Amino acid sequence: MTGRSSLPSSDRHGGGGSGDAVCPVTAGGGPDGPRTKGAGAAGAAQPAGGRPAHREPGRARARGTGHARARRRDRRVYLRAHPLLFALLAATRGRPVRRIGRTVLVHEADACREVLTRLPLDRTAPGTTGGAARSALGARKAKGTLNTGNTGDAGVLFDQDGDAHRALRRTLARDLGTAGVDELRALWRPLIAHRLEPLAAGGTVDVVALARELAGTVVRALLGSAAAPQAVAAAAAEVAALSVRGELPGLPRPGARAAVARATARLRHLLGDGDNRGDEALSAMVAVAAVNTTVAALPRAAAWCADAGLWEQAADDTLRRSLAGELLRVTAASPLLPRVAAADGVAGGCPVRSGDRLLLVARHAVGAHASGPDALRPAPPGVARLVFGAGPHTCPGAGLAGALLEDLLAALAPYRPAVVRARADRRAALPGWRTLTLRATAGRGQR
Ligand code: HEM
Asked: Where is the region Disordered (predicted)?
């Protein structure tokens, strides 16, 4: 499954070649600075044929459309939780790559891919995903060893490199590959059907609660835990929320580390409550990675589908996969990838120095801010897949996430549900809904 992640670097849709991007440090440029040709640079998604495929209609025309309604609602998950960060990222996206002091903001697809695949990264630096995972999940580097895959490095994937990283990924490959996902489908399909039954009777369904149960069920099955799915999901969400809060810049938060440690212990206890693999740190990491992304992605995708009136496409067996991929692209569940350079290099034509902080804005790189989901003309895989990262660390759960969303869309489609209530989650580690209530507008559930 991870083989599906190889990304064509010459893809024009996802941004002009990195040679087009002019380093903001050295370039003059107007207020918006130089722009690349593609999705991540200035917002317009430009396919190979030069046709602006994914751009939504002009603002005025789009205001009344379903896509505009979907986008307006979806923006709330960012604005409620991180309004300042959202504003900063939006304000800086006019340039594909922009340096602010020792921080380099990367908004464009080719430049993001370049960082993830070619630039040596410090996987354990504080403030990065790897550093946060390492400090939250308690893995320890043996004294005196480098984090290069040597023995003694009890890593959690995100913070690893080299042989140890490859070896640990192999332990997940079967479970998250096609055969593993098919087995999981047999678990989650009946659960989805059962939980959607209230729609047939004119009732409502909270897709966030369902997503939590689905994610918990998947994690339980993957890790051989006997704990209740909802408890696993709640514990994994707590670890991520506390750990993100602890990493935010600002005043020191006394007790933050201890709170993360307690939440991690709770999660490990739950996961260890069964036929566990014995690798507690990795198990906890898989739980955190799977739960938080799934709980963010599925409800946002369902809301977008409902608001934009895409249920016909969701019901279509030939279009559903493409629609799911597009919904994962525009919702970009993990919208910001914080990394630190471990060596001097280049990102999108801009020199990067060892120790520079790199903020990879996946949301902009895939054109999520600029173009709605289009199952008939989807973004090229090399662009859309960037929501799952790229290179050796590319998300091993991408196939699972796509299959789960496809099945949820297929099960919801006959009801053509509409959103009756949506409340953003201000506490969650990733932008998402706290509740997302749907009611049928078609089928037996229509009133
Ligand atoms: C919509 C759902 C998901 C999104 C958007 C997502 C996104 C990502 C991203 C951006 C990365 C970092 C990739 C990089 O650094 O290049 C990642 C890594 C990872 N994801 Fe996912 N993910 C999702 C679902 C899942 C699921 C369902 C699982 C497990 C069942 C999972 C397990 C992992 C693991 C273990 C890693 C670390 C890989 C490594 O460092 O080698 N993810 N994910």
From this structure: 1-74
